[in-house]
Amino acid sequence: MTYNNFNIEKERAAQDGSEWLFGSQSPSSLYEIPLAERENYLPMGEIQRGSEDFADCASRGPVNYLAAEFSYAYKNGLMKPESKRWLEANGYVQDGRVDFSDRYIAINSGTTRQGNSLKAPLEAIRANGLIPKPMLPAEKWMNFATYIDPTSITQQMRDLGAEFSRRFQINYEQVSNGNFAKALEKSCLDVAVYAWPFPENGEYKRDDRPFNHVVLMFALPAYFVFDNYVEVGTTDDFIKKLSSDYAFFDWGYRVYVSAEVTPEERADTVTVFNVLSRFGLTRFFADFLALFTTRQAVKQRETAQVPLKPWQPTLVPPPAPTAPSDILPSDTTPNPESQVPIDGPKPAVSDYKWGTRAEIIHSIRVLCDEYGLSWAEKAEICATIEAESNFNTKAKLENKVSNGKVWSTDWGLCQINDHYHVGRGKAFASVEEILEYPERSVRFMLTCFEQGKIDLWVAHKNGSYKKFLKKYLTK
Question: Per-residue pLDDT tens for 410-425?
Fold first, then answer.
């Protein structure tokens, strides 16, 4: 049977340059399931159709895995007693397992008859939380319109989902298909495939027809997936074995639990903040917290059984300041989410120096002063730039898809992406402008910082900048 539930156009359009990317410093989930035990905690399979196909495979993948992680944490004492009692009291636990409503996420993420992107359901989970499966179930009699009807969601459901989000913080990362095997060591993956060729001796062989379906990849050797349709010749087997060279869409996602906070802990946080505000100590505390976080990260790396190699871009100076024409974006339409005018304060005469490393750092800090940044904020900017380019004003990083083709390049001191920020109507007219005028790149970053968009830089969003932070916080 062939499906059409993965909307590849919507997935590509959803990319805005702010995606968290999987790497060596990617955090583990609080409820991480060992690879060998994952199959035991997968939820009971459910076919994604009633009287019609529900086209919500993109929602079911992450929901199924979070159900598995929460069930594992519930059974193995990884969850705080208060959180466990709250899940039980609100109907999330059935027969000793935690399960969530696929339908709630399918509706909130904008599923259509053409399916959905991979990213939209993940963002819906992060923003709206999860509710118990029995609260908004699928029924066999439902057609697509009934299943996806937004009026099915009540205020009680929204309130419960919001409380879930306050108690459990869910995040996600994008994983390139070349890193699937490595990422599987941490968690399951939400991936897009062609579905399905007919299996041969219990294995699905590579098929290069268009990607049209989303499944949950959960185990090695490459690859075992949990599907929303039963295996051929069975009535209750939702697991499929794919060949090691099976074709996957360019990237997938891993979803994970990053924090668990009880109401008592939230109340304590508010109390502390109010006291600090009363005595004017919030800035001091923020500076101290940044230093403490850095020290904790260093301590964790030093005591880890397996040292983690920090992620850093490969810095290759371009052969000449002129950008090759074949890597400039053909689509010059600005991305509204990523276009940031460089509108900060500018001196009448620029005397910034960009020759030596010391001169570059000094110039960055002076520019930070112009923008009114605090000592801690200046340290944050310097650490981010060091993580991105190591203060190389000619740095170049090519971003490639699975077939090795370069789809965009990050340039210069602040690693400005040419697909999103270079061209007609965008922040930079050309790559030459980025390479020859580092001040403009720094001002671009500072403007983004002021607008709360510093996570456009991967080194900031994934936290890898923190390993450089301490030296800039020391006065």
Answer: 999 999 999 888 887 7
